[in-house]
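Worked Example 4.2. Consider the chain below.
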Amino acid sequence: MRGIGPSLPNAQVGTPLADPVLMLFDRNGAVVKTNDDWMNQTVMSDLTAINNSGLAPTNTTEAAVFADLGPGAYTAIVSGKSNATGVALVEIFQLP
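Applying the procedure from the previous section yields the following structure tokens:
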């Protein structure tokens, strides 16, 4: 899962979110994972998995999480660090 902002001008998107923060919640509202700056992972195996996926964000200030999720409802929210505003994109990938 990625929270993309700084690389959006490459897609002609104006006012991109400069430093996205990505949060993943379960159906009860509990935080499953969170990330700010994708290369700064709390679990080193997550960084390895993101790098090995071929889907690592192109900008170091973008956010990404790697999660092995079971069936159920989840919510992903991308917000701006320090309450910054702008346009962001949340991308969710299913890996083999």
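The beta strands are 2-4, 20-26, 31-36, 63-64, 74-80, 89-91. The first helix runs from residue 44 to 53. Compare this with Example 4.1 before moving on.
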